[in-house]
Specification:
4-stranded antiparallel beta sheet; single chain; alpha+beta
């Protein structure tokens, strides 16, 4: 009686699920790692909008302070009083793009200029007073994202 040799493929097939699980785990981890690494402008833009909306939820004084603190330093004199109005901003993050040609009033701000599509809702005394879709500019300067405070009288 001669022993029949086992086919070589049997051993490979038996280990295939382990290999597939290992490869899947590596691909999954790579996918998670890729999404966790976002650009500095994107990360800072998200933080800017989150901080803006937190300030708006806290009321007009908190939001006025936010606008004062984040106003681009080249435009400090452009900060307007909003009275009892707050401004919520809902950004469309995939639309964030460089806009080096932006120059309000013919003055190009220092730093990296970015434009983004936004939906803006204004409230006065808790009631919606305006709703608009448009674009907004932010500027990355010295590791911080700066904006341009809204000025309803202009």
């Amino acid at each position: 009686m001669t022993a029949r040799p086992q086919p070589v493929a049997t051993g490979r097939i038996r280990h295939r699920p382990a290999v597939l699980i290992g490869v899947s785990a590596v691909l999954f981890a790579a996918g998670c790692a890729a999404s966790a690494t976002e650009s500095e402008p994107l990360r800072l833009s998200k933080q800017y909008f989150a901080d803006n909306n937190t300030a708006a939820a806290q009321g007009p004084q908190a939001q006025q302070e936010f606008f004062r603190r984040t106003q681009h330093p080249d435009f400090l004199d452009e900060n307007c009083e909003l009275g009892e109005t707050t401004v919520e901003i809902d950004p469309a993050m995939p639309t964030l793009r460089p806009d080096p040609e932006f120059a309000p009033e013919g003055i190009r701000p220092r730093g990296e200029i970015w434009a983004i599509g936004v939906e803006v809702t204004t409230r006065t005394a808790g009631s919606v007073t305006g709703h608009q879709i448009g674009s907004l500019h932010l500027v990355l300067l010295d590791g911080r994202m700066h904006g341009f405070a809204p000025c309803p009288t202009r």
